[in-house]
Amino acid sequence: MKYLDEFSDPDLARSLLRQIHAATTRPWALMEVCGGQTHSIIRHGIDQLLPDGVEMIHGPGCPVCVTPLSVIDKALAIAARPGVIFCSFGDMLRVPGSGRDLFEVRSAGADVRVVYSPLDALGIARDNPDRQVVFFGIGFETTAPANALTVHQARRLGIRNFSLLVSHVLVPPAISAIMESPRCRVQGFLAAGHVCSVMGTSEYPSLSEKYGVPIVVTGFEPLDVLEGIRQAITQLEQGRHETRNAYPRAVPETGNPVARQMLADVFEVTDRAWRGIGTIPGSGWRLTDRYREFDAEHRFDVSGVRAAESALCRSGEVLQGLIKPHECAAFGRVCTPRQPLGATMVSSEGACAAYYAYRRVAG
Amino acid sequence: MKYLDEFSDPDLARSLLRQIHAATTRPWALMEVCGGQTHSIIRHGIDQLLPDGVEMIHGPGCPVCVTPLSVIDKALAIAARPGVIFCSFGDMLRVPGSGRDLFEVRSAGADVRVVYSPLDALGIARDNPDRQVVFFGIGFETTAPANALTVHQARRLGIRNFSLLVSHVLVPPAISAIMESPRCRVQGFLAAGHVCSVMGTSEYPSLSEKYGVPIVVTGFEPLDVLEGIRQAITQLEQGRHETRNAYPRAVPETGNPVARQMLADVFEVTDRAWRGIGTIPGSGWRLTDRYREFDAEHRFDVSGVRAAESALCRSGEVLQGLIKPHECAAFGRVCTPRQPLGATMVSSEGACAAYYAYRRVAG
Amino acid sequence: MIDFEGWTCPAPLRDTPHVVAGHGGGGAMSADLVRHLIVPGYGDAGGTAERDCAVVEAGGARLAFTTDAYVVQPMFFPGGSIGDLAVNGTVNDLAMAGATPLFLSAAFILEEGTPLADLGRITAAMGAAATAAGVRLVTGDTKVVGHGSGDGVYLTTSGVGVVADGVEIEPRRAAAGDAVLISGDLGRHGVAVLSRREGLEFATTVASDTAPLHGLVAAMLATGADLHVLRDPTRGGLAAALNEIAATARVGVELTERDLPVPDGVADACHLLGLDPLQVANEGRLVAFVRPDQADDVLAAMRAHPYGTGARRIGTCVAGHPGMVVARTALGGTRVISMPIGEQLPRIC
Amino acid sequence: MIDFEGWTCPAPLRDTPHVVAGHGGGGAMSADLVRHLIVPGYGDAGGTAERDCAVVEAGGARLAFTTDAYVVQPMFFPGGSIGDLAVNGTVNDLAMAGATPLFLSAAFILEEGTPLADLGRITAAMGAAATAAGVRLVTGDTKVVGHGSGDGVYLTTSGVGVVADGVEIEPRRAAAGDAVLISGDLGRHGVAVLSRREGLEFATTVASDTAPLHGLVAAMLATGADLHVLRDPTRGGLAAALNEIAATARVGVELTERDLPVPDGVADACHLLGLDPLQVANEGRLVAFVRPDQADDVLAAMRAHPYGTGARRIGTCVAGHPGMVVARTALGGTRVISMPIGEQLPRIC
Amino acid sequence: MCLAVPGRVVRVTVVDGTPMAEVDFGGVRKDVCLHYVPDAAPGEYLIVHVGFAIQRLDEESARRTLDEFTRLGLLEEEFGEVP
Amino acid sequence: MCLAVPGRVVRVTVVDGTPMAEVDFGGVRKDVCLHYVPDAAPGEYLIVHVGFAIQRLDEESARRTLDEFTRLGLLEEEFGEVP
Ligand code: SF4
Ligand code: SF4
Ligand SMILES: [Mg+2]
Ligand SMILES: [Mg+2]
Ligand SMILES: [Mg+2]
Ligand SMILES: [Mg+2]
Ligand SMILES: [Mg+2]
Ligand SMILES: [Mg+2]
Ligand SMILES: [Mg+2]
Ligand SMILES: [Mg+2]
Ligand SMILES: [Mg+2]
Ligand SMILES: [Mg+2]
After folding, report:
1. What's the rounded Cα separation, in Å, for the pair D34 and D13?
2. Residue ranges covered by each domain of chain B
3. How many A from CA of A272 to the centre of ligand 1?
4. InterPro entries given for it (chains E, F) (predicted)?
């Protein structure tokens, strides 16, 4: 695909790698915030090609992984109700709640459907006027415009049997929370390019400043990731800590003003729990009062749902790079990709899952 | 089974047959009104063992066969509605309406269920409060008490998602209609024992009197049928025309007073169309006003349903013994048990179906 | 009896644009579907695909090969489960060709939400039945379908067996004069399953007759008799089995009703529901067409086998009324035992 | 790389008391279900029942025997239908044992309400595929299930073929040093089906690769090479096929990512939906493990066959990291190609 | 019309205010509504149609009918067989 | 997070008052909501996430970035390879 293949060119990648090696004089710990970048790093083996001592810490930027247990449990409770069609992005179906996952709820008879887009869920609502259609509106700032427009359309078109179970999370507060952690080892960030395609880059310079870390906005192809690493290490080696945009083809400084305006109309900032990490103040979006009637938590009383996170799971520490997955006593024993206890074992790019896959590689 | 096996004894049957032969001096045409007796006659080959010239004309006493096309079409229309559970006795499922049958409606997604008893349908209504449960309440006087009590219970227990699609028919008006037919060949009747178990025998003497025909109330086992034939022929040979009860073990003269009282409360007399015959005045029951809200025709507006009976079908004449099935041009060509046009081809004991089965027997 | 000049066979499948339940009843609608839609679709690659069990030659061996899909509801019933049914049914289809069954395959279609414990009970029943029948389950497949796109466990077994030289057991070999034998009483399986069917539940002591019959067939062959036809009267019961044989061989069959072994519990359940016991399924019975001079030997061999203790002669194959099965009633009349159309329905009339 | 002392295999099937979709995905959950529930249920009658295709001896012949259930939705997709899929799939399972496929059976489970015209199209596709593959559809069965207890047509085909003496093609024969070959490009079937899947519809020119592969196998055998393993990478794709072989033979596999032939249309669709093309199903491809000194001959023979024109070497079987498949990335790193767990899900992340 | 069969009352109960009975039909047992034969007692035979007892079976009358058939048969033997 | 891919606009339409586009992703085509990039024209490249265009792809910028990578590679060659 054009603009993907070019930014995967192995020769240019090797050239960038050589420059990273040339620039690196000591160990550095960088975090790619975004799960998509984690995926790219593992998929292409980039971490294995970095200079010894340059460590990539996988951040909490997988929307599937960080959706709090309590919200998953609410999703399971709503999906199990008779008459409900519960729609979700595919990768949410295998995420375990306290007891089971959406696959199991579906296997017990619930009508759970995988859709490509929230607009597909709205179409299902229109086609099934006698059913309640709920879309599981998770995601970071990238996905929020899609969910926002969908609920906006539902209101505009009067599709009242549609609602959104919202669990949006925001990147900048997460970066703050990571940096505020007493044992934080992160020295520089790769910021998530597609989040910035929507939001722009203006939120990051103050974070670079406050915490003294370079933040490089970058993309997802190997060259993008490598260039992000190169720029971050170059800054670190030079003692700088600035916000830089290494993904200008997709990220204008102002992001997408139309989308930001819609977001401001549909969503408002709220505290949000992150799975395995805990509550981060002001780190999420919920529907504004104007859209309250389309809020699935409001429409279906799920206030009684209580989540019990596994006492064994140390994914919060893993996410912050404080421990390695195999230092968790549950790892590979009671916690596996098939029976995950924590967020980081759920998704294939989660740190624990990645370690699990590599566990047998002759080192 | 006790009281079935004893009344099927072959030795006693042959003895009764010999007495029939002994008593018969000329041809007689008898009608067994009841489809159950038709079934028994064919099942045991009784018609083949009667004296030459004694002809059994199969009457319109199969509730499945005579249910009018318009009611079947209403049943199909109601069953096809979303949210409806349509319950029926098994043998109604294959009866064709103008276009299709309940099997085909079910194959298109309707929830059509076979039940043993109308009470089972009421149980389904109780178990599915969010669905409309409709029972196809067909039958003669024998079945009417069951349907009556079921709708009575629904009212008493407040099960408001239950309704009855009623098409009850009555034997005495049918006997009158047959005898009033200008070309009528029937000289004596076997009356339906189980109808009389409910209604008693008091309606028949006036018919015997008015039309000058013997009427013998009898049962369904070979000895019962043979005894009915024997008594009818004996009367005919002697020039008598009386109503006699040859089934006293199941038929008290007053029938079942408790049942008759319930019937009077739940049902009222109405004109009723008989499939292939036409409308017979006062030959049916419908729900009284007290039970109107449990009337499926009332609950589901099916007034627009119009039935188109096949122009080819001559089942009315067949039923009255005026023509033989193979004299119908459609017989065996466009009308077969698998693709029946008329009532008498629908049920395995219908006259046309019976002829179809025998068509290949070396005469 | 009746003049039937101008008789025409009704156009098959006419006016039925969709699959309906009756297409699976093992009667005339099932047969039409296979004959007029499935086999024509196969074209030159089919040809013999109508057969319940094919006898083919491969690598110099004479093989029997068969398949059957099992969708029985409920999956567990008095006397058995879908698991032993699927093993015994396929073993029996091989046995009806005179084959020694050797290897079975099993393909599962599982509905989401099916308790794994149920699947475990089924596979254990399959293992036990296979061990009892002396066959091995050598290959398989498993698929999962969504909730509401299945019903618990559907199970398709296929089987391979070896047919000895000289054994030619086929429906078309039914010949006028043949004795018609049955290996035991009728209707137990169908009544057992019906008694647990949702909406019809009744209490009964009748249990399914499910059993592997290849040992019985071996005992019959060991008499040296030239068995013409063997058939397991499953879906559609004895009525369907005999009508199929009569139609295939263009012979008539005459039964003596008094000799048809219908156990009391089956007769009673059929009375109650208005069913014909001759149309009720059996899963551990066979019907045999045997030369009349060999019938007594074969009957004796059957009766000496555990699965043939109730064997008896029930009728005769005749040249008259080809394609038609007729029973002489206890009263001395005759009635036509016709091919069931679709599936059996409880009657009120 | 990581210390994994104290590692324990997770208890199979733990905490999953019901069948879920993943049990049918052809990945680890499917394998667990077979290994830890179905086969143990069979007891002594099973044993080799894990096999996709069994090689057995019957009547002096060496036979291959296999079965597969097809529940694909939609039933018609670019490049084929459930009908040709069911014929080719079973032909291929036989071919992967080095057998010459001869006879097929077909058992239908039809949902009430399925248009007979659809069934007709399916049987015609089966006939055409069987004719093309030179096999005969010799026996079958048809069942009907209620509306909402099925989904159109489910079709189980079983197949019997003959294996020549000396041919020993089995997963456990994979040996360190073997060249790993693929017969053509990857992922066409899965993408074609996904493109018509309700809720995911997209326009694409990618069509299913469904094809019978026994002719290709015959051409490979005709080189005289000692083929160690053949496998059709169907459900779970190349990832599942190689992981299964690696696990069975206790060998490692090393792929060179650059050599994996993923056509543009497949790569693009996978990018869009976040799928891994190595986990996407193929229905007309085989992967072969061949002695390194014979690899060139075999590759040449493959390329000369119409279904092998895109054949190429994609990797090597190694003694290191037994049970594990690793790919060298274009950048020079490595990544683990792990066994898919359940079925593939479109990702947003 | 109206398939109705004789069965023997095994046990009587009341469900939702309605008298019910377990009825034995030669081994097969079904629950039957007794609303129309409310005083039926265990051991008695009932005529049952679609789950309802519609009438009591008069055993004495049944015996008399059968006796009558037998008597007619004996009489007939005296007068010789008919064709 | 946030799998988003570049695609080329083939055709634009309006559905229910919302601008939509058929977008080509190297052969694969999907309908995409243009609400957030309403002035996108056929031939332009968009960044698409879960059925929505979230941003225009700046082709000029992409070319410049690639040129820069190439230039850095050439520079590096001048200075010799790193380990
Ligand atoms: S291995 Fe499992 S339990 Fe341990 S930290 Fe990772 S996700 Fe949590
Ligand atoms: S053969 Fe068919 S069309 Fe003719 S009278 Fe009988 S039912 Fe009607
Ligand atoms: Mg078979
Ligand atoms: Mg058979
Ligand atoms: Mg069979
Ligand atoms: Mg398989
Ligand atoms: Mg179900
Ligand atoms: Mg297979
Ligand atoms: Mg295979
Ligand atoms: Mg296969
Ligand atoms: Mg069969
Ligand atoms: Mg369906």
Report:
1. 11
2. 315-358
3. 21
4. Hydgase_assmbl_chp_CS (IPR019812), Hydrogenase_HupF/HypC (IPR001109)
Determine, for residues A358 and D15 on separate chains, whether the beta-carbon distance falls below 8 Å: no
Domain D51-167 fold is 60s Ribosomal Protein L30; Chain: A; (3.30.1330)
Please check whether residue F50 is in contact with residue A89, taking contact to mean a CB–CB distance below 8 angstroms: yes
Determine the average pLDDT of the residues in D284-313: 98
Q: What b/e readout covers D164-192, taking b as 16+ CB neighbours within 10 angstroms?
A: eeebebbbebbeeebbbbbbbbbbbbbbb
Global pTM reads: 0.93
CB contact under 8 A, D348 and F25: no
Q: Phi/psi of residue B6, each to 5°?
A: -60, -35
Averaged pLDDT score across all residues of chain B? 91
**Chain A CA closest to residue C146:** A107
Q: Kindly provide the residue ranges of all beta strands, DSSP E only, lying in chain A, ordered along the sequence.
A: 28-34, 54-61, 84-88, 111-114, 132-139, 162-169, 188-192, 215-218, 243-245, 267-274, 278-287
Q: Give the total residue count for chain A.
A: 363
| Cβ neighbours of B349 in C, within 8 Å | 349
Interface ipTM: 0.92
- Count of C-beta atoms within a 10 Å radius of residue B62: 32
Architecture of domain C171-337 in this structure = Alpha-Beta Complex (3.90)
Q: Which residues from chain A sit within 8 angstroms of residue D2, using beta carbons?
A: 324, 326, 355, 358-359, 361, 363
- The strand pairing partners of D68, in sequence order, are D157
Is the pair E, D in contact (3+ CB pairs within 8 Å)?
no
Rounded to 5 degrees, φ, ψ at C15 are: 60, 20
C-alpha A235 – ligand 1 centre gap (Å):
33
Domain edges within chain C: 51-167, 171-337
B215, B207 in Cβ contact below 8 A? yes
Q: Report how far Cα F78 is from the mean position of its chain's Cα atoms.
A: 33
Q: Which residues have a Cβ under 8 Å from the Cβ of C33 and sit 6 or more positions away?
A: C13, C23, D116, D142
Give the pLDDT confidence of B103-141 residue by residue, as tens digits.
Answer: 989 998 899 999 999 999 999 999 999 999 999 999 999
Nearest C-alpha neighbor of C20 from the set B342, B343, B109: B109
Edge-to-edge strand ranges of the sheet holding A132-139? A111-114, A84-88, A132-139, A162-169, A278-287, A267-274
CB within 8 Å of F39: residues ≥ 6 apart: none
Residue range A2-29, pLDDT digits in tens: 889 999 999 999 999 999 999 999 999 9
Q: Ligand 2: does its nearest atom lie under 6 Å from the Cβ of B193?
A: no
Q: What is the pLDDT at residue A338?
A: 77
CA A99 to CA A75: how far, in whole Å?
Answer: 12
DSSP calls for D200-219? T--B----------HHHHHH
Q: Is D177 on the interface with B (CB under 8 A)?
A: no
Tens of pLDDT, residue by residue over A212-249, are 999 999 999 999 999 999 999 999 999 999 999 999 99
Nearest to C144 among D19, D59, D139 (CB): D19
Of residues B322 and D317, more confidently modeled: D317
Two tokens, residue B257: 């007073």
Of all protein residues, the one whose alpha carbon is nearest to atom 1 of ligand 1 is A331
A336 alpha carbon – ligand 9 mean position (Å): 27
Residue pairs between chains A and C whose CB atoms are closer than 8 Å: 13
β C325-328/C252-256 pair status: parallel
Written as six digits, the tokens of D249 are: 């033979």
Percentage with pLDDT > 70 across chain D: 95
Q: How far apart are CA B41 and CA B351, in angstroms?
A: 12
**Helix, strand, coil share (%) of chain D residues, nearest 5:** 35, 25, 40
Which helix (H) or strand (E) segment holds residue D326: the answer is strand D325-328
DSSP code for C11: P
Ion ligand 6, residues whose Cβ is below 5 A away: C 141; D 68
Cα separation, D268 vs D281, in Å, equals 16
